[in-house]
Structures are given as C-alpha cells and as structure tokens.
Amino acid sequence: MATLLCVALHALPEIKEGDDLASLIADSWLAAAREDQTLAPRPGDVLVVTQKIVSKAEGCVVDLTTIKPRQEAVDFAAQWDRDARQVELVLRESAEILRMERGIVISRTHHGFVCANAGIDASNTGTKDIVTLLPADPDASATRLKAQLPALVGLNDDDPFGIVISDSFGRPWRFGIVDVALGVAGLAALDDMRGQPDADGRVMRSTIVALADEIASAAELASGKTSRQPVVLVRGAPGVGGDGSVTRDVVMPHEMDLFR
Amino acid sequence: MATLLCVALHALPEIKEGDDLASLIADSWLAAAREDQTLAPRPGDVLVVTQKIVSKAEGCVVDLTTIKPRQEAVDFAAQWDRDARQVELVLRESAEILRMERGIVISRTHHGFVCANAGIDASNTGTKDIVTLLPADPDASATRLKAQLPALVGLNDDDPFGIVISDSFGRPWRFGIVDVALGVAGLAALDDMRGQPDADGRVMRSTIVALADEIASAAELASGKTSRQPVVLVRGAPGVGGDGSVTRDVVMPHEMDLFR
C-alpha cells in the first residue's frame, strides 16, 4: 500500500545570519535517527524546510527601525492598524500590487509569487522589530541544501533526495493558509500526467499535479505553526530524483494569469 | 516526534448509484488492517475519500447523450476543441461565471466553490459519455460516512474520527492542481491559531491554517491519480474530533472575495 510519512524533526537552535544551515539540519536528522532508527536517511527522502530559517541563515532579515515609510504606507497602516514600516517593506518587495484592501497587500513579488504582504513575516523572529523577507532565490537555496546534505547524513550524492523550501500562503476564494513550495531541488515540482491513460484507458487531458506544493502542505500538518520544528522529513513522496524548479515550473507567467 | 501517516487503501470495486459506500470503504480498510495490523482503525484516524466515488454512489452522474447544449456552449466548445454537452453542463452547475477563456470555464458553483469546469469530471467514469458532477452537499456526504463508518470498523461512535471528501482544484498564479476538501465531518476544517502566542510569545495575528485542505493534499500524494485508490487513511492529523464544515468555514463569502 502506497504510504507517505511526514515526521517533524527536533527543533533547531535559533538561526542567525551565516549559520551553516545544512549542518544544523543534518545534526537534527541524525539525532532523530538515533532515537528511531527507521528515520535514518534513505534514498528517496525529502526534507521540507520552512522559509523562515532559510531567510535567517541567508541574512534576509530587516530591522524595521531602519525603515522610513513613504506616505502611502503611513496612510494604509493608519487606516488598518498596521505597522507603516512593514507596509513600506512590502511595497519595496513587490513587483506589482494586485490588491490593497482590509490591511492586506496582495502583490506579485520580485520572484513572481503572488501572496499576501510579499511573504514578509514578523512571527518567530526573536525580536519585535525584526522581520524576515523571502529568500532571494528559493530554488537556489534548495539547491545548496541539496548539494550539502547528502554527505553530512551518509547518503550518496547521486541518491534521489529532495529539498522543498516552504511558506504559508493564503488563497483566493477559500479561507485559511496552506503551505506551498517556494523552491525545490532534487524533486519534480509538477507531476505532468498529461497523455497518461487513466484507469479506464482514457487519456487525461490536463492533469498536472503540483507535487511540491502538496508535499509542503503535508509537512505543515506534521510540524505545526507555534512550535519551532522547521524541518520535516517526508518519505514516500512521488517525484523524488526529478529536476524541478518552482520559479520555472510553478510560477505562472504574467500573460497566462486570468486573475490579476 | 510529530508524525503524519497517509496510506492508500486498496481499490474499491467500480462504484454505482445506490452502492453502500460506507460498507465498501470499511471492507477495504479492514482488509488493509489484516495485511498490516498497524492500520487497524484507531481513534484520531481520518479517511480522505475522493469526490468521484461519492458522486457515483450518490448518482451525481450525467449521461452526456441526454444533454442539449445552448448556442454559447456550442460556440465555446468549437473554438477550444471541447465537448459542447460538457460545457453546457458546466454552465448549468455554475452560479456565477468568473472567466471563460482558453477552453476553461472558471466559475462559482452552486455550493460556492470556485473551480475549473464546475468540478465536472470525465476521467475514470468507465464510459466515454458519462461524467460526474460534484456531490450536491459534500459536508452532508461526509457526515453520513462519519455516522456509518465507526460501527462498521469497530470504533466507538464518540471516538474522534474524521472524514474528508476531496477533489483536485487548480489555483490562480501557480501551475498544477492540488487536492482540497469539498466536505468534512468530525474534523476542524480550519485551525484558528489567532490569539495564540508563537514561539517568541508574540500573538499570531492572522494564522488560520486550512487543515482539511492540507489533509486532502497529503492524501493525494499517497493515492496518485491514475490508480483506483480513492480512499486514503490519514493518521496523526491535527483537528480530529472538531466540528468543521467546508461550506460554512472555508468557502469565502462573495463580499469578501477580492478576486471575482
């Protein structure tokens, strides 16, 4: 029976700029494997790593006391009881504003992600005036972890092994946030089943599954939000060993977007 | 270590209108438990059931040879190489059309779901001219399964036990479909963490996790699309024992929708 297993690894120490994230993650994984040997690294495993610790390690962190908001940010913040400096940062991180209503800015970031408040996050940063930005290139962040981790955990470089950098995004039309993939490495971001027959032998016309996003969502269920468990081992996921990219494969080009 | 386990149960027989779906699902679950006793039903378990078999059992199935398309459907189908009868059905199942472009109708269904082609599906129906509609009330479908299944699998009626009815939806701005919840029973649809402190003791302002949608996505990874494994056991999910409803809790009211 096809099985997917998601296990939240132990908390990492508080991450600071310049920390060797791959080594800290490897230590956490190997510690888990000492407690439960079935968790020892295997070919086919995926690690889902929250954006927050990647941003911290890469120094994608801003001290709001250094930010001088423009008038538009001051007005919007006053109207909706928000922090004008944070609104200013959101505007700076946005390539295109889609909506600015009810205290939320929905924009397309420089990466092409459409999300609320440009992915800027004030929670779990350790200090009130510190916020994290999204990593500059989450696929590249994933690729670096994918290159470093196998040697640190006893996998071979050519073993199938995947990394997902995840974040929580809202969606239109449905309440609640879900975790999605900002970046991947060693994994297909999409599972393109177009042209494959279904169980009746009928060709499936438009079935492209957003694998990496589903993996991020599955991992979130194991990790939770309030705890400091930013790394989840996912075992049994399809697509491991693929060569995906969120920016190239998942982000929809401007001209195909029906909902600007 | 917090763990989520998703296991696709064995294929069910081809489902027909009037079939006792709860009994067929119970048989499949108990057969899996005979092969692997760790899969025996436990309090806290969730079953994710794809919309397709619920629709078939409830008779939400249409023979396209009985459908006479209106001119608008004929024209749209001709322009985009689609089946005019199916386009006609999509229009009938829609309360509001949001976009009609590139062969896809994005609409709000009578339930309030915004999705492509009103959730009408021609794959895996067994016959070329047969399509499935969404269940008339997926929360009610889930509630019926939630009422029937415990006694069939040896759980107590008051054991926490959840049902999710799932379907695959596209999203704006990102390629690929992800499975979401159409209906739930015995489970919180949302995990409302507003007012709870994060790991630094800061109150999280707007963290409402779409639990049921994430559970549906996790289950999809275990089941796959081409196989006939329409039921997935999910163990370790948060929110089991809650009293959620997708229609009441997740579907965003018209007036809050920024992206009509």
Distance between the termini of chain A: 42 Å
Order of helices and strands of chain A: EHEHEHHEEEEHEEEEHEH
Strand order of the largest sheet of chain A: 1-12-2-8-9
Low-confidence stretches of chain A: none
Large-scale geometry of chain A = globular
Q: Give the class-level CATH name of the largest domain in chain A.
A: Alpha Beta
The CATH architecture of the largest domain in chain A is 2-Layer Sandwich
Largest sheet of chain A: 5 strands, mixed
Overall structural class of chain A, as computed from helix and strand content, comes to alpha+beta
Oligomer: homodimer
Mean pLDDT of chain A: 92
> How many beta-strand runs of chain A?
12
Q: Percent range for helical residues of chain A?
A: 25-40%
The CATH topology of the largest domain in chain A: 60s Ribosomal Protein L30, Chain: A
Please count the helical segments of chain A.
7
- Give the number of domains of chain A: 2
Radius of gyration of chain A: 19 Å
Word description of this protein:
Two copies of one chain form a homodimer. Chain A is built from seven helices and twelve strands. Chain A starts with a strand and ends in a 10-residue tail after the last helix. In chain A, helix 3 packs across helix 4 (84-93). Chain A has 260 residues and is of the alpha+beta class. Chain A folds into two domains: 5-58 and 135-252, CofE-like (60s Ribosomal Protein L30, Chain: A, 2-Layer Sandwich), CATH 3.30.1330; 61-132, CofE-like domain (CofE-like fold, Alpha-Beta Complex). Chain A is globular and about 55 Å long. A five-stranded mixed beta sheet of chain A has the order 1-12-2-8-9, sandwiched between helices. Chains A and B meet through strand 1, strand 9, strand 11 and helix 6 of A and strand 1, strand 9, strand 11 and helix 6 of B. Strand 1 of chain A pairs antiparallel with strand 1 (3-8) of chain B, so a sheet runs across the interface.
